[in-house]
Amino acid sequence: MNKIKIQTIAYLSIIIIGAALCKAAPLNAADPQKLIGKWRRIDNNYVIDIYKIDKNGQLDAGYYNPNPINVNRALFIQDSNKLKVFIELVDEGYPGSAYTLNYDPEEDALVGNYFHAGMNRNYNVMFLQINK
Length: 132
Known about the structure:
CATH class of the largest domain: Mainly Beta
Mean pLDDT: 83
CATH architecture of the largest domain: Beta Barrel
Largest sheet: 9 strands, antiparallel
Radius of gyration: 21 Å
CATH topology of the largest domain: Lipocalin
Strand content: over 45%
Low-confidence stretches: 3-27
Structural class: alpha+beta
Number of helices: 1
Helix content: 10-25%
Number of strands: 9
Shape: globular
CATH superfamily of the largest domain: Avidin-like
C-alpha cells in the first residue's frame, strides 16, 4: 500500500472511533449520581432528599417542608446531556403538587418549576445541594 492510502485509512479509523465514543457517552453528560443528596430550596427551608437512583429512571426521594410530605412519584430522565427530575407530592394540602426540575451543572443546582395543585399556581424555584 502506498503512503496516502495508509494515511487515509488511519484518518478514517480515528473519525469512526471518535464518532462511536461521542455516541456512547456525550461530552458534558451529567452523571445522574450527582442528584444524590439533600437539596434546599433557596427561598425557603423546603428540602428534597434523593437517596437512591435506579438505572430505569426511578428515584427514591423524600420531601420536607420542614415535616415530611408524601412523595407519590419521583423520577429522572437523562436527555442528551441534561438531567431532568420530576417529583410528585400527594399529601394533605399537596394533592398532586409537583416539581419539574433541570440539573444545572454550572451552578450545581436543580432549577425549574413547582406546581402547587391546591392553589393551582406555578412558582420558579431553585435548589442547592446542602450536604457536600
